[in-house]
Amino acid sequence: MDQAARITEELVSIIVQHGNFNNRNKGRIEIISCEVTPKKKEDHYMSNAFFVNVLLKFEADSPERYYMLIKLPEEDPYIRKYLNTEVLFHNETLIYTQMIPLMEEFLKKRVSFSIQSLFPTCYYARSDSAPDEDVVVLGDMKPEGFRTTEMKIFLDYDHCVLALRALGRLHAVSYGMKNLEGSAFHTIISELRVQKFANSSESDIDLFFKKTTSVAVEYFGRDKGVDQTVVKKLKDKFSKCSELFVQMLTPKEPLTVMCHGDFCRNNMMFRYDECAKPCEVKFFDLQVVKYASPGIDLSLFAYLNMSSELREQHWDDLFKEYHASVINNLAEILGCPVDILEEDYSLEIFQKDFSDHAIYGFLHSTFFLPFSMSDAKNHINLEETYSESLGEIADTYIELGGEEATIKVADILKDLVNRGAI
């Protein structure tokens, strides 16, 4: 049975009976109709997704229509193993069913804003059974007026400032919970798992990033005035990226937070006002959530979602917007003046933390930017790609974006060097 048929014939009934419908599903339920439409892969390759339009009747109530997005693992067991989908669905289920409800309950006692407003409704989630039975069911946000941005690579200032303010709110809740309900927060955090592609070894990771970084380093090194000893140091540094990842992902208190982990435009949906200006944002795809430095989310966002021109003109201002959101929301949560928080959460401390972790975003840009910029990504054969070694996959990514992608990745490297982040 294919997945679309399985949704109609099996899953919808289970979701309705056991899902989150505000206890309306405790009595008699009738599924009047159900339509299933596969979602295009676009920038999401870790799971299969389906839009579901279902008409339900609870007890004596009038029929009500629900719009859902159902995420299922890849059907091919080889691809599931390669992507480590058990880990992805475990993490997403954990965050939607435990962490977000815990945060929401925590905030009810202290502030007026809702953390749930940053995410789609989760109707149902299940993991850690059979690998092909994992499922996450979210509300489809399109009928609520949300949509993905039409900007396919880089965001403009208005989208960036909205996203960063919302990220600051999310990070502030982590800090608040660590201060006031640390035991409950860390109990859930301790259950997060780390995804490991294709059981890759440290040497596999080193080879992959040695290849993807070398193109940008060589291009950067051809600039007039670039000290070739710096180029050599860069090559040496990027020859052991497995060690860099361990360093950057090791929690360092007190700034460590629950990071989204893949904080990019393809994992956000925006609602727009009558002037077509973004006015609200929601985050989704919580499969690689990490307990790590806020610089992990910030560096991914800065280097995968902002052009070099926007970073040069506005990154300092945008960073201040993020920091103001963190510290003002945290002050409200803790019920204290902002000044008291400056010792541990000052702008300068956050800026240094970003500098210490900025390489993380750069390393991801070396393969994801070429992928995002190429039309060929829509024609990649997953089965063929996942049968290749990481070294061969690196070669594929490098070729995808051509010289234009190389220039943009080299610009990021130049930004890192200028900031003293390397």
UniProtKB/TrEMBL annotation:
PANTHER family in alphabetical order: PROTEIN KINASE-LIKE DOMAIN-CONTAINING
UniProt xrefs under InterPro entries: CHK_kinase-like, EcKL, Kinase-like_dom_sf
A Pfam family assignment: EcKL
Occurrences of domain CHK kinase-like (ranges): 136-332
Protein name per Swiss-Prot or TrEMBL: CHK kinase-like domain-containing protein
Gene3D superfamilies, alphabetized: 3.90.1200.10
Domain of life of the source: Eukaryota
Protein source organism: Periplaneta americana (American cockroach)
